[in-house]
Amino acid sequence: MAAIENQNYPKDKIEWHIMRGFMPEGEGGGKQVGCNACNGEFIAIVDEDNIVQGPEWLNNMLKPLLADESLVGTHCRLMVDHSDPLINQYVSLVGTDPVFAYRSIDGYRDLEEIKMNKENTLVTGGNCFIYRKSALDKIGGYTQDTDNIASFVELGICKIVVPKNAFTHHLAADSFWGFLKKKAKWSKQPISKKWKWIEPRLFLEVFLNLTLIANIYKAVRNYYREGKEPAWSLHPLLAFLTTIIYGWNFVKRKIFKE
Questions:
Q1: Beta carbons within 8 Å of 141's beta carbon, 6+ residues apart
Q2: Residue 146, class by beta-carbon neighbours within 10 Å (0-12 exposed, 13-18 middle, 19+ buried)?
Q3: Which of 130, 8, 113, 9 is nearest to 61 (CA)?
Q4: pLDDT digits over 187-224, tens only?
Q5: Could you tell me if 75 and 131 are in contact, meaning their C-beta atoms sit under 8 angstroms apart?
Q6: Residues in Cβ contact with 113 at an 8 Å cutoff, skipping those fewer than 6 apart
Q7: What is the DSSP letter of 104?
Q8: pLDDT class for 22, splitting at 50, 70, 90?
Q9: Average pLDDT, the chain
Q10: What are the angstrom distances between the C-alpha of 214 and each of 92, 205, 235?
Q11: Which tops the pLDDT comparison, 107 or 163?
């Protein structure tokens, strides 16, 4: 909270809404309620497990939106803090989901601008993200992070910038087992209505995750490519275990109706 309050931005131009994530009103919970209540030109969503970095964070995130009216939003980069537990460093490198990392904007370290379509749609829209309110109005307002992006894609307006100088410290995982428990919990929740998860690429990723060899190579390659980041050592095992968790919960839903 202090990091947001200390932004180098006129305080009288900021409208605050502090919401609970799992409010019962609406399918998007607290985020949907908060976005519907906002009156400004831009809506900045900062999840509670994030600490935005530096007093210029808001200015850096808004600058591309002010310069290009065709942008629907800006996405914040994840900072790797080497004082974090190794598991949180891993999340900061790959994103919160090793199975769908190929679909996550967090895993694209050098990405700056992207115009998404149905073939290259990436997961984003939450965590630390700024929406153009007029863009949300075009899709009927905020519903759910991934569904917002899918709706922008349907309209052909999903253009997003990831500023090089805007970072957040995402406190997503404090232990190995805690991370896996989150994966188990998330995989039991309803899947996005608009997001097409089942696709040929997913079957390839599942195969690669279960056979381990490709991810061992990827971990070694990225360890050296990204400046000897030790957290990459976790990738083969976490991708394997997360795939098992997702697969088991999928079977329980479809076959055992749990």
A1: 32, 35, 36
A2: buried
A3: 130
A4: 887 667 787 778 899 999 999 999 999 999 999 999 99
A5: no
A6: 159, 160, 161, 162
A7: B
A8: low
A9: 91
A10: 21, 10, 11
A11: 163
**Per the structure block, which two tokens stand in for 31?**
């985020």
- Give the Cα separation of 217 and 105 in Å (integer): 21
pTM of the model: 0.91
Give CA–CA dist 90/45, Å, rounded: 23
pLDDT value of residue 207: 97
Domain ranges of the chain: 2-254
Number of H helices and E strands in the chain, helices first, is: 10, 8
CA angle 76, 221, 213 (to 5 degrees): 110
The confidence score (pLDDT) of residue 77 equals 96
CA–CA separation, 246 and 83 (whole Å)? 30
